[in-house]
Amino acid sequence: MTGRPRTDRAAVITGLGGWLPPRVVTNDDLAAHLDTSDEWIRSRTGIARRHVVDPGTGTATLAVEAGAAALKSAGGGDVDSVIVATTTPDRPCPATAPQVAARLGLGAVAAHDVSAVCTGFVYGLATAVGQIAAGIADRVLVIGAEAFSTIVNPRDRHTAVIFADGAGAVVVRAGAPDEPGAVGPCVLGSDGDLADLITVPAGGSAQRSTGRPAPPEDHYFQMRGRDVYRHAVERTTAAAQTALDRAGWRAADVDRLMPHQANARICAAVAERLGIGPDRQASNIERVGNTAAASIPLLMVDAAAEGSLAPGDRVLLAAFGGGATWGATTLTWPVLPAV
């Protein structure tokens, strides 16, 4: 599915915030109990360290911290809607977003979750675009938040070394399509035939309805790495190129490619296919790992804070995740308060 706002009301980014739990796990920490090493992890993923939640900390806590920072960046005030993109809700039922809205003191606003795994933030941003274009909302808080360490098998070196926890958020407001910060054409897609590519097999209605207990490993995240690499590169590149075409941009116009931080090799392959050089690629995977739905907003926070993302920069966002899902969009970076 592809689409763009059908009115002159665009969703304009006006606030940005992120939060990482304070506990840091290095590659050497993982090598102490896994058959791996710092060199093995770095060479295959580009990751050196990651943040993980302490016991008892759920996704809502991360989302509240990031949401509060984004609201402060946007100058405070209320929003009409809260969207939380996550694969790790605090509970299967109810959604996490209403709790986040309540803890942020936002009152009885609309609030719901989006489940698209690593594409979740792009899907959530596109949902906010639709709400604003339709006149349903004037201001929307979009949060990508994950406590992914809680669903990763700590004994699986292929996933435990990659995934991490954190949250990033943006506030978008109604504005004009030609304003800096206006979200451009959104390109979204999915392929349910690839559902087993990235999955937690147990815990849902399909497994529960059997009446039989699932093997312990089926309660953890599972991923077919080689297949994920191929589909992620192909689908992310195609979605990004479509977003560029619909925005009337060329790859040469892009100042910053900001892909989901899945794996350093995937990001590099996508950039190469698009013709975007290393000097125009944003990356923070080395120090935060793969934070799934939180990845892109956390990347924006880091790039803005370190000065590699400046007002007026043309930005391309793109992601691939479980479902399988993928998505991309464009924007010209606005002037925002320091984050």
UniProtKB/TrEMBL annotation:
The active site is at C118, H260, N290. It is an enzyme of class 2 (transferase). Its EC number is 2.3.1.180. It is found in: Cytoplasm. Residues 261-265 are annotated as: ACP-binding. It catalyses: malonyl-[ACP] + acetyl-CoA + H(+) = 3-oxobutanoyl-[ACP] + CO2 + CoA. Gene3D superfamilies: 3.40.47.10. Residues 244-333 form the Beta-ketoacyl-[acyl-carrier-protein] synthase III C-terminal domain. One of its GO terms (molecular function) is 3-oxoacyl-[acyl-carrier-protein] synthase activity. It holds the Pfam family ACP_syn_III_C. Residues 113-192 form the Beta-ketoacyl-[acyl-carrier-protein] synthase III N-terminal domain. The keyword Lipid biosynthesis applies. GO terms for biological process: fatty acid biosynthetic process; secondary metabolite biosynthetic process. Catalyzes the condensation reaction of fatty acid synthesis by the addition to an acyl acceptor of two carbons from malonyl-ACP. Catalyzes the first condensation reaction which initiates fatty acid synthesis and may therefore play a role in governing the total rate of fatty acid production. Possesses both acetoacetyl-ACP synthase and acetyl transacylase activities. Its substrate specificity determines the biosynthesis of branched-chain and/or straight-chain of fatty acids. The last Arg residue of the ACP-binding site is essential for the weak association between ACP/AcpP and FabH. Homodimer. This is Beta-ketoacyl-[acyl-carrier-protein] synthase III. It comes from Micromonospora yangpuensis.
